[in-house]
Amino acid sequence: INPEEYVTLGEYKGVTVEVPPASVTDEDVDAYINQLIESNPAKIEITDRPIQNGDIANIDYEGKYADTGVAFDGGTAQGFDLEIGSGMFIHGFEDGLVGVKLGDTVDLDLTFPEDYSTEDLAGKDVTFDVTINSISVDKKPEYTDKLVKDNTDYDTIKAYEASIKEELEEKNKQNAEQQAESDIFEK
Question: What span, in angstroms and rounded, lies between the C-alpha atoms of 23 and 112?
Answer without folding.
Answer: 54
